[in-house]
Amino acid sequence: MLSIIQQQLRNPDKTAIIAHGHSYSFQDLQTGSQQFARTLLKNSADLAEMRVAFMVVPGFDYVRVQWGIWQAGGIAVPLCITYPLASLQYVIEDTEAEIIVVSPEFESVLTDYSAQQGIRLIVLGADDKPAPVGVLPPVTLSHRALILYTSGTTNLPKGVVTTHANIDAQVSTLVQAWAYSEQDIILCVLPLHHVHGIINVISCTLWAGGTVEFLPNFAPEKVFDWFAKIALGSQDGLFMAVPTIYFKLIAYFDQLPEAQKQALTASMATFRLMVSGSAALPVSVMEKWETISGHRLLERYGMTEIGMAISNPYEGERRAGHIGQALPGVQIRLVDEQHNDVAPGVDSPGEILVKGANVFQEYWRKKEATEATFTTDGWFKTGDVAVLDDSYYKILGRNSVDIIKSGGYKISALEIEEVLRTYPQINDCSVVGLDNEEWGELVVAALVVNDGSLDLTVLNAWIREKMPAYKVPRQYKIVDDLPRNAMGKVTKNELKKIFVVVSGS
């Protein structure tokens, strides 16, 4: 039996999942996932790493399907439940999935397509009746377990293949580092085709014997209602989200009556841990959330390819603007463009390289891309640039979109964004570099403001007092919102299209 399933059977009658008004025990999860494994197997003895794509509503069905795929010897391929058919086709065809599993809500999306392609379609509740008892195949840690797709912000998405050994390493490391326990209860508000929700929220909590509650649709008032409910119970509350969600929660909280604010602050103070990830956490959001919740958010660093690699400590200083230190069992290096180690210090940026049991096996059927992303001695090249600042890593940005090369300088877009967000009229912002003949790239900024009368001349004078002239944006654009992907990351290549490209300065 796979480690993640073994771990959670210590207390079979305990509640594992709460979803859609129902509670499910660990025994329910074991029985349901084994039955679904037999449905998948049908007349075969082993799926033998067959890819099974599934488009399933978050909740008990999602987990039993994923675990059922694993127990049948298959590779789980989660599909985003909000993607259009063309995006779903890309993943299904790239993985050459031979089975598609859907919740009834999504049957109409994929029925015709699966029939045309000759792919077996299983509709939950209709095609997954309890199967006869049978022996499940042996599944080892070396078996491929999961294919998740990169965000594809700079090129076509790639399928990231992780083995059961990779997942074990990712989960067991976090359970230890963040002190998960069977007393924990966590709310899942994240999409479940990304590592954040699958590993950090669901897998770690269930591995430790805790409870996962699902919120079908994100709404700030429902999240705060959940905070208040958990504060009255006996379990230890956890909450994990992306910065965009925290920003929305803060905006909602700010318009509440004072008495309700005080009650919610008291509720949140009872929680054990609150975490932010998947995108850089603005210092302003971290500080504001600490004021209203009593929690200094734990910021960490991870990727689809590595799970989590670096984290601020569960106990100890959580340093604003920093992602923390290497997790146990994970090796980290910072290197220059020639892959030479850089010296520690804020003036010595380098690309983050990672090595450890957490690191993925390969990009699905992309041998050249896999080889290109590893050094000859096995270090994974993340493409993210950081500095080691007094033993804490600080992200400067992604090589391809967040490091702007202008006038001979390497400029961190994230650093400029942090400064802009401290301006009273700016709610949010994003900084990018535009190709330019004279400067290489020009620094430009898109601004989401709370007052349409923002005077850009005054803003420009203000920011020139905050940073060197070469870092100051040469062009500003006021926008209603910033383009983002499913995890809340700004899609900067899309953002560049709104700016007017100019030659010279």
Automatic annotation (TrEMBL):
The record's section on Gene3D superfamilies has: 3.30.300.30, N-terminal domain of ligase-like
Q: Which residues form a coiled coil?
A: none
Please state the span of the N-terminal signal peptide per the UniProt entry: none
Cite the AMP-binding enzyme C-terminal domain residue spans from the record.
Answer: 415-489
Q: Name one Pfam family in it.
A: AMP-binding
What positions does the domain AMP-dependent synthetase/ligase occupy? 7-364
Q: Note the InterPro entries from the entry.
A: AMP-bd_C, AMP-bd_C_sf, AMP-dep_synth/lig_dom, ANL_N_sf
Similarity comment text for this entry: Belongs to the ATP-dependent AMP-binding enzyme family.
Q: What is the protein name for this chain? A: Acyl-CoA synthetase
Species of origin reads Spirosoma flavum
